[in-house]
Design brief:
Blueprint: H1 19-40, H2 49-63, H3 83-92, H4 99-126, H5 128-140, H6 142-150, H7 154-168, H8 180-194, H9 201-218, H10 223-243, H11 249-252, H12 258-267, E1 274-277, E2 280-283, H13 291-298, H14 302-313, H15 321-340, H16 355-373, H17 378-401, H18 415-419, H19 432-446, E3 450-455, H20 457-464, E4 470-472, E5 482-486, H21 491-499, E6 504-507, E7 513-519
Parallel strand pairs: 3-4, 3-5
Antiparallel strand pairs: 1-2, 5-7, 6-7
Helix pairs in contact: 1-4, 1-5, 1-6, 2-3, 3-4, 4-5, 4-6, 4-7, 4-16, 5-16, 7-8, 7-9, 8-10, 9-10, 14-16, 15-16, 19-20
């Protein structure tokens, strides 16, 4: 049997056939990058950022020979690799910015990379204008955009995972299935993802499944070629495990076993705190099986939901069928696995953030097929209007709710106001920065220093460092002027933030209260406290 050789240079590039789409794609990305970096300055420190920053400094010191590998045994490093945090720690030495402001800018760059590769994958699978639509849908996705600003765990992994998925898609349908160039790009991209989260091991599995499917479809029975392909896959796996643990000192001690130990451990993370879901409080280890699917449904913009539904409806349509089936598998497999294994989930579905860009590509495939089936007539025009309306409404949401896009819920639950006190809202504590900023404005107007405390204390402390007239003190000192509080987990906490007398509240435009600033025991030092009350929308 003879198999045609297809050189890598002969494989069509995503935008090679349409200059208008290519320039639109590049223009959108060119505008989006500085916009995202600028927007990141408006976002506050989040719950885990302090620990991640500390870990990154330690890994950076380890790489410079200043720490021993043994120091990472039981410090959290056995769960999370440290590429993103180490990169930020290294940049702090050269860029004179507040460490967490710098981290947010780097976070935004990672988010932009994820959008770029989401667009490239959509263009490769469904055409150049599909790539443009993918950039629009993911760039405007409120929860992805917000995570791009200050989520140091889930967003960088989502971006690198999308890069890995794109390069996995470049496997040739003809011998040699894995060219040297493709193998190098696949190895590096999966290794980068593994240096951020252990879930990157999934993409080695996807690569193996794709190559196996191509070999079967190609009816290759030449044992030499099969042996070479198997050796290539084994080589990629070994290289990924070695390179993917460079920024993971704990796993680097045994790169061929410890990543798999961490993967099993991550699914059963030992956290059993309260989770608010559909108006009820659950332990994180005892959530209903439909927790993750329902969260995806209510926190994803309509255009993506409709497009994904169309991809499912057109599953028996020959055109692009297998591409949509493959994307559907990539979206559903981790979701189903989390349900079957009863994985520990909380804070919405942030642990599954890496599925959002793939869901967008799947949705774009649905929209592309929907519009292609009806190239003329009223149906196509109506579908285009629905798509335009959905995109426009999400754009309006992003502008109105900035910098709290992370509390997005769609109309199935009545938006953020309808979801309030029923679902987790600002679980990261991003809105604390707005409360601290309000206290800083009070300090400026009174020409004094304002002492603040709050919950979560470490988030309030780190946000306060950005304002010279604001000083954080422990609540136990009982001498603070103001107390900043945000709710998480318990309905009683939501009621306390919303109903307790406050000097100021951070509200969404539709009325959901995210954060409150209440009077502390020393508020009288600032004069008449009633002059401070604004309780306004921010």
């Amino acid at each position: 049997m003879t198999v045609e050789y297809v050189p890598e240079s002969a494989i069509p590039r995503p935008f090679a056939t349409d200059r208008a789409a290519r320039w639109t794609f590049c223009l959108l990305l060119g505008v989006l990058l500085p916009l995202m970096i600028a927007a990141s300055f408006d976002f506050g420190v989040t719950w885990d950022e302090h620990d991640r920053h500390t870990y990154g400094v330690k890994v950076w010191e380890f790489l410079r020979g200043l720490r021993e590998r043994s120091e990472f045994a039981e410090t959290g490093g056995h769960v999370y690799p440290g590429l993103f945090d180490t990169l930020c720690a290294a940049l702090e030495s050269w860029i004179p910015l507040h460490p967490f402001v710098l981290r947010h800018a780097v976070n935004a760059i990672f988010g932009w990379i994820g959008i770029a590769y989401c667009g490239r994958l959509a263009a490769r699978l469904f055409g150049p204008w599909a790539g443009v639509l993918a950039v629009v849908l993911l760039g405007l996705a409120p929860r992805y955009f917000a995570a791009s600003m200050n989520n140091p765990k889930d967003l960088p992994f989502a971006a690198m995972a999308m890069m890995a998925l794109y390069y996995v898609s470049t496997v040739s349908p003809r011998w040699p299935y894995l060219s040297l160039g493709a193998a190098i790009k696949i190895t590096i991209s999966i290794a980068l993802a593994l240096n951020i989260r252990v879930g990157a091991l999934l993409y080695l599995g996807y690569l193996g499944l794709l190559v196996a499917a191509i070999v079967i479809a190609d009816r290759c029975s030449d044992w030499r070629r099969l042996a070479i392909t198997g050796a290539q896959l084994a080589g990629i796996g070994v290289a990924v495990l070695l390179l993917g643990t460079v920024f993971w000192p704990w796993a680097g001690a045994a790169p061929f076993t410890r990543p798999f130990q961490a993967l099993v451990g991550a699914a059963d993370y030992p956290w059993d705190g309260p989770v608010l879901f559909n108006g009820f409080e659950y332990d994180a280890t005892r959530l209903p099986w439909y927790y993750a699917p329902w969260w995806f449904i209510i926190s994803t913009q309509p255009a993506v939901l409709v497009g994904a539904a169309c991809s499912i409806l057109f599953v028996f349509d020959r055109q692009d069928r297998w591409r949509r089936i493959a994307l559907g598998f990539v979206v559903s497999f981790p979701l189903v696995t989390a349900i079957v294994m009863q994985s520990t989930l909380y804070d919405g579905v942030r642990h599954l953030m890496f599925l959002r860009p793939v869901l967008v590509v799947l949705a774009v495939g649905g929209w592309a097929r929907l519009l292609q089936r009806h190239p003329r007539g009223r149906f196509r025009n109506a579908a285009a209007l629905v798509l335009a309306w959905s995109v426009g409404s999400v754009l309006v949401f992003d502008v109105r709710f900035h910098p709290n896009q992370g509390v997005y819920f769609n109309s199935l639950v009545g938006g953020p106001a309808g979801a309030y006190k029923r679902y987790e809202m600002d679980y990261w504590g991003n809105c604390v920065l707005q409360g601290v900023e309000w206290a800083a404005n009070v300090a400026k107007s009174f020409d004094t220093t304002v002492r603040i405390s709050g919950n979560p204390a470490h988030v309030v402390l780190l946000d306060a460092q950005r304002f010279p007239r604001v000083r954080f003190i422990s609540e136990s000192e009982n001498s603070h002027h103001m107390y900043i509080n945000t709710a998480r987990g318990l309905r009683s906490e939501f009621r306390n933030v919303a109903n307790h007398p406050a000097l100021y509240r951070v509200r969404t435009p539709d009325g959901a209260v995210l954060c409150s600033v209440t009077a502390g025991p020393s508020i009288g030092e600032l004069g008449r406290s009633q002059t401070l009350v604004t309780d306004s929308v921010r």
